[in-house]
Write a structure and sequence with these properties.
This protein is α+β, with helices and mostly antiparallel strands. The protein has four helices and ten strands. It holds the Pfam family COX2_TM.
């Protein structure tokens, strides 16, 4: 029950950092809320005497200047670090291009061999073998190697889309005529599911994303096939 109130469990590097920063931010907000509530209770309990009898206090003025500044700095520094980390100013091992269409995704991987290009459509309800991932299954999954630094170039061929992986803490708008960049990488094999999170048309909810993480050997074998 508690897990359903927070973010999805992340198993990629950026998602973990986003999750930790979210929890830390909520802790700061809780600290501020408790401090304000205690101040209100003290003032109400004193019948307003503390407010009426207040003249000046250099220590109090210094405190309510330094403490908020320290809290803002403790939020701003990791926020900037996370922003630059998500931009991914590093050397990549693999580049993937994801292009949104009405209503499917097309992928290109051109770093090895002659490259791979394929389209990924949602599997219809009539074709599902097991309805455990209803509206999330695709006919061609994006297979990528884990423990790898991957750059994802996100674009669109028609209207606005959004390539989003909630379990990875990632989302990028797919704009016509423009490429947005995401840094992607996980530490263990598995699967990630996502959907287009932009209202791109009547079938907006029917263009899911499925990324399957495998070893480099399996990735190269699937690439060779």
């Amino acid at each position: 029950m508690y897990n359903s109130l927070g973010l999805q469990d992340c198993f990629n590097y950026i998602g973990m950092e986003v999750y930790l920063f979210h929890d830390y931010s909520m802790l700061i907000v809780l600290f501020i809320l408790i401090g304000v509530m205690l101040s209100v209770l003290v003032i109400l309990g004193s019948g307003g005497y503390m407010v009426k009898g207040y003249r000046s206090s250099e220590f109090l003025e210094l405190t309510w200047t330094v403490v908020p500044g320290f809290l803002l700095m403790s939020l701003g520094v990791p926020s900037l670090f996370l922003m630059y980390y998500m931009e991914g100013a590093v050397k990549y091992d693999l580049t993937v291009k994801a292009v949104g269409h009405q209503w499917y995704w097309s992928y290109e991987i051109g770093d090895y061999g002659e490259g791979i290009e394929f389209d990924s459509y949602m599997v219809g309800l009539d074709d599902l073998v097991v309805e455990i991932h209803r509206l999330l299954n695709v006919d061609n999954s994006l297979v990528l190697p884990y423990l790898t630094k991957i750059r994802v170039l996100v674009g669109s061929g028609d209207v606005l889309h959004a390539w989003a992986l909630p379990s990875g803490g990632l989302k990028a708008d797919a704009c016509p005529g423009r490429l947005n960049v995401l840094s992607l990488g996980v530490c263990r094999p598995g699967s990630m599911y996502g959907q287009c999170s932009e209202i791109c048309g009547v079938n907006h909810s029917f263009m899911p994303i499925h990324v399957e993480w495998v070893s480099w050997e399996d990735f190269l074998m699937s690439h060779a096939a």
